[in-house]
Amino acid sequence: MFKPKYKQIIDDIIAQIDTGELEQGMQLPSQRDMASQYQVNRSTVIQAFDILKSQGIIEGREKQRLYVSGNTWHSYIRNNINWQNYISNSTTKNNQYFVQQINKLEFYTNMMRLGTGELGPDLIPNERFKEILSKCNASVLNTNYEQPQGNLKLREAIVKYMGKLGITCTVDHICITSGALQGLKLIADGLLIPQSKIIVESPSYINSIRTWHNIRADIQQISISDIKSNINNIFKAQTQYTNSIFYCIPTLHNPTQHCYSIEEKQKIIMQCAQRGIPIVEDDVYGDLYFKHERPKPLKSFDTNDNILYLNSLSKTVSPGLRVGWIIAKPSVAAHLADLKMQNDYGVSSISQYIASEWLTQPQYHEQHLKSLKDKLLIKRNLFLESLEKYFNNFGSWSTPEGSFYIWFQFKTPIDMRILFDEAVAENILINPGEVYDKHARHCIRFSYAYIEPDDIDSTLKHLSKIIQTHFSQSS
Predict the structure, then answer these.
(1) Which of the residues 141, 149, 167, 404 has the least number of beta carbons within 10 Å of its own beta carbon?
(2) 142-360 placed in CATH 3.30.830.10
(3) Where are the domains of the chain?
(4) Per the CATH hierarchy, to which homologous superfamily does domain 97-121+367-473 belong?
């Protein structure tokens, strides 16, 4: 459909205002420049500008210069809402660049995923889920809303399951969440205030999400090596710790896979108690410890309800179930459950039913964990063998005692954004270290959870050639 040139100019300027490309107070190009750009006479540009001025969208100031009006919002909102203003002014900010790219690229079917922190399809027990549902009769399956703190049978199963880990609790201590991530969100919204001091290990998974950044929290990082070397004096004596919490992943830490000893865990609890600092323990990986007996959680040593304990089936069973839980003082669990009901009315009742059966019947969870750890151990060993073959000259890594991450540190600085883009161009997806710590710019968090065993060696070999080419071009 034919559109007059002056109308095209008007529509283009309005579109640039809508997207935020032109903001309030910005100067427009001159009439001469606009005429050249659109290949029209200046009179056509003047006609367009006059209409925009009459609508209050632009305004003239000194020396006939034109600017986007400060009243643009008020004069134009009836026809075109500037959604960019809403996005820019929102208290919830977008993910960092690498996280946005990873979230998008993970769903490219031809992408070899060397950093994905979830079980691959070959490790998820979908046949068992079908078996659970096939045995269910209509009188048992509930598809209405569940209780605010979650399905009672599921909470009873969690009480027994936690007892095996040394955690004593009742159903009133438990709030079912949509994965551990929702638990973190509920803690941020329900227990913290703006500018709360969040003490975290460095590097840390918590830096890859915006849950606590969005409440403008004062996030203070302590390296794991500093925590271990100063285990008797972790926190500065002169610092005020009002409205503070300590977030940690004590067992199979993400991304480093570090585990604290029992003595270190007890000292962390003691120091936090002395300074009145609650602990948020994230224990989603503990069950993936490869040795027979997994390390005890911090919560198992807690006698005063000073620890908020997070766990989930997302890393051990299926991320799509979206079943996690918080263990806290009953009044806190009830408060967080009330907040949860304000947001989503709870986790899917079908997912909660599957999870309750899964944890109640030993032939499901216990057998699955044993099989899963055997498969992950095979993948880990294949991954380590390939790293030894192709990456030994590039950097260093440690052998994980469980879970599915390997923290790789380059010996020589590398431009990670260029490497990331070059790897993606070759259909290889990596997780750069700065996702977890802005200072870890020369690290990669590898994961062997999602990639097929037969693809590990060839993919790491391919990535090593990309890295070698990168270093050769940089020298």
Answers:
(1) 141
(2) no
(3) 5-68, 97-121+367-473, 142-360
(4) Aspartate Aminotransferase, domain 1 (3.90.1150.10)
Correct CATH for 5-68 of 1.10.820.10, 1.10.1760.20, 1.10.3660.10, 1.10.10.10: 1.10.10.10
HEC per residue, 271-306: HHHHCCCCEEEECCCHHHECCCCCCCCHHHHCCCCC
Query: How many residues does the structure list for the chain?
Result: 475
DSSP assignments along 123-172, one per residue: GS-HHHHHHHHHT--TTT---S---TT--HHHHHHHHHHHHTTT----GG
CA angle 401, 406, 408 (to 5 degrees): 135
Q: Which amino acid makes up residue 349?
A: S
CA neighbours closer than 13 Å in the CB half-sphere of residue 431: 25
Report d(CA 88, CA 81) in Å as an integer.
Answer: 14
Distance CA 348, CA 354 (A): 10
- In this prediction the pTM is 0.82
Residue 201's alpha-carbon distances to 87, 117, 384, 436, in angstroms, are: 31, 19, 25, 10
Contact 416, 442 (CB under 8 A): yes
